[in-house]
Amino acid sequence: MAESDRDPKLPLFADADETVAAIHQGDVDAVVVMRALEGPQVILLHGAEEPYRVLVERMSDGALTAGSDGVILYVNDRLCELTGCLSAGLVGRSLTSLFEGALPTLVPEATVEANLLRNGGDAIMPVAVWSRPISIGDTTATLVRLTDLSIHRRAEQIAAAERFARSVLEQSTEAVVVLSPDGHITHSSGRADQLAEQPPVGCMFSEAFPLEAQSTEEAGTLARFSTESLDTLLATKPFHGVEVRLRGERNAKSTFLLSAGPLVDDTKSNVGSIVTLTDMTERKRAEEQQTMMVAELNHRVKNILAIVQSVAAQTLRASGSLDNFADAFTGRLKALAIAHDILTQTRWIGIGLSELLAAVLAPYRSSEETRVSIFGPAVLLPAHAVVPLSMVLHEMTTNAAKYGALSKQRGTIEITWQVNGSLDKAVELVWQERGGPKVKANAKASAGFGTTLIDRVIRHDLDGKTKIDFDSEGVRWTIAFPVGGPARRHVALPDSAIA
Amino acid sequence: MTEQDGYNLRLYVAGQTPKSIAAIANLKKICDQHLPGRYEIEIIDLMKDPALAMRHQIVAIPTLIRQLPEPMKRIIGDLSNTERVLVGLDIQPN
User: Fold this and answer.
1) Which of A208, B21, B48, B68 could form a disulfide with B8 if both were Cys (CB 3.0 to 4.6 A apart)?
2) Same domain? A21 vs A108
């Protein structure tokens, strides 16, 4: 020992006898010996305890010994690391001062959880605290082991986040896949599994989902990328809104919107991407249907205008005065309006013949039910037949009101029909007036514009036939027209149809 | 605490050996009882730095050194004999 290292106040041969005696009496359990090269070394006198001491001092858990009064007597290096305090700063403190709040009651050989204060209280760390009482000579003490739970908690949080993310993926109604930076699929949603050509996880995107561009314009977008570069693009760059189809028969009728967005970790580093294939098939179908409906609406509006124009022109031609024109034209427009109301209400599907008759003849049936009787089997009129037939029925009703059965108090009309044929159904309708003014023998020759319109419309717009009989008891119309054939595109009354 | 009436004590231990632990506990108990507010204890773990043994010529562990008041005194053992400790440190029992 160098003389300079020694405390000068110490007697030169201080207490040598006492030291020897203490060792002999077993009052000490370690000695310091000088070695030539290493200098002073501590030698433990109880060799059997050495392995345990090393274990405690080197173990990855924090360990301490506290006296019966709760004062810390010893801490290992790991506890110093966990608390951020030096050993000297911990020995002598109370055990409870290490923890946030009150330390849960320690149960021998059991583990309780607590929050360890770190760096003088700047932070806390969840720990599991295990304890066991021991005897040291005449003194009782408590061994305490502290296990860092923050790693476990973090692992639990990661596992929970993973479960949550997986649940979101599995529940997603969209096809969603997660790509690693090299383009391999690492996760996939249930819908993606259904769409893929093969189990997608582990494949490159282009293998699992071979693409075709939906439109020529977008084909150019996709064509700029080879399969490999598309995989790289999807894995590394935001990519939005390209309509694609998937190759293969299963998905041949479906259209998808392909999008990709970056997947970043806590440090905002790119760790891959999330690619979605949104099924747009229904949306596309709806768009196409809407486009078609707008075109159909335009077509129908033009038809209606043509009908109105034609009716106006021909009514004007057949009217002797402006008053006559106003009455006739208003009546015909009303008939047209009723027909369009019916078509709108039935969404242009058509209407039963009896319902159409009831609507057109409503003004004459509300209070005098028995004057107009309607009887026949149920038959659905196609939409294209509704407007022409409404016009025809309006003319027949108007004629009856002006000149026929409805012009007299006791006059009646009986409307009956039957349906002939099975595939190419045709309706044969008989309009029989009774009780009206006596029909003149030359009445046919004096038939007016209304009669002519009925005949022309039935023939030209309904592909049907008409026959009028001037019986002595009243006029009888027999009209026949098909109702099972293909729908006609337009229902305009050609100018030529109205003489 | 002044140099005249304060006790500056230094306890040399060897990690968590039973007598080291016992010495720390016993010393704290004795000081709290007989020197309340008049002592400072410094615990030196020679397992961590054996070279610190040289200053006070420590041979046996545990060893308690009374640095103040002078003269310097030394007590070897786990300090379980309170009477011996009080005598060795020149402390009058309360």
Assistant:
1) B68
2) yes
Are B78 and A2 an interchain contact pair (Cβ–Cβ within 8 Å)?
no
Q: Looking at the structure, tell me whether residues A353 and A374 fall in a common domain.
A: yes
Q: Is residue B1 within 8 angstroms of chain A, CB to CB?
A: no
Cβ-contact A78, A144 below 8 angstroms:
no
Of A193, A206, A61, the residue nearest A130 (C-alpha):
A61
CB distance A433 to A474 below 8 Å = yes
Structural domain including B32 reads: 9-88
Q: Considering the domain boundaries, does residue A107 fall inside one?
A: yes
CATH code at position A216: 3.30.450.20
Each residue's pLDDT, cut to its tens digit, for chain A (499 residues) gives: 444 455 555 554 446 667 766 776 778 888 887 777 778 888 887 655 666 666 677 777 898 888 888 888 888 888 999 999 988 888 888 999 999 988 788 888 888 999 999 988 888 999 999 898 887 656 678 889 898 998 888 888 888 888 888 888 877 888 999 988 888 899 888 888 888 878 899 998 888 888 875 555 555 555 555 566 677 777 777 777 788 888 877 777 888 888 888 888 878 888 888 888 888 888 888 988 899 889 988 888 888 888 888 888 888 887 888 888 898 899 888 888 888 888 888 877 888 999 999 888 887 776 656 788 899 999 999 888 998 999 899 999 988 988 889 888 888 999 999 998 877 789 999 999 998 888 765 555 455 777 888 888 899 889 999 999 888 888 999 999 998 754 444 444 434 333 3
Residue B40 lies in a domain: yes
Q: Kindly tell me the number of DSSP H helices and DSSP E strands found in chain A.
A: 15, 20
Domains identified in chain B, total number? 1
The reply to whether B61 falls in a domain is yes
Task: Count CA atoms within 13 Å of residue A311 on its CB side.
Answer: 28
Domain match, A347 and A411 both: yes
Q: Using CA atoms, how far apart are residues A83 and A142, in angstroms rounded to an integer?
A: 19
- Residues A7, A140: one domain? yes
Residues A8 and A41 in one domain: yes
A247 and A137, same structural domain? no
CB contact under 8 A, A53 and B61: no
Domain count, chain A: 3
Domain membership of residue A388 (yes or no) is: yes
A253: left (phi > 0), else alpha (psi -120 to 50), else beta? alpha
Distance CA A76, CA A201 (A): 48
CATH number at residue A432: 3.30.565.10
From chain B, pick out residues whose CB is under 8 angstroms from the CB of A71. Answer: 25, 28
* Chain B nearest C-alpha distance from A40 (Å): 6
Under 8 Å between Cβ of A260 and A238: yes
Half-sphere exposure of A349 (CA within 13 A, CB side): 7
Range of the domain at A226: 154-279
Closest CA to B25 of A42, A65, A131, A25: A65
The two tokens of residue A47 are 């060799």
Question: Chain centroid to CA A161: how far?
Answer: 22
* pTM of the predicted protein model: 0.42
**Contact between chains at A57 and B58 (C-beta distance less than 8 A):** no
Residues A357 and A480 in one domain: yes
- The answer, for B37 touching chain A at a CB cutoff of 8 Å, is no
Say if residues A143 and A132 touch (Cβ distance below 8 Å).
Answer: yes
Q: Does the predicted interface ipTM exceed a cut of 0.90?
A: no
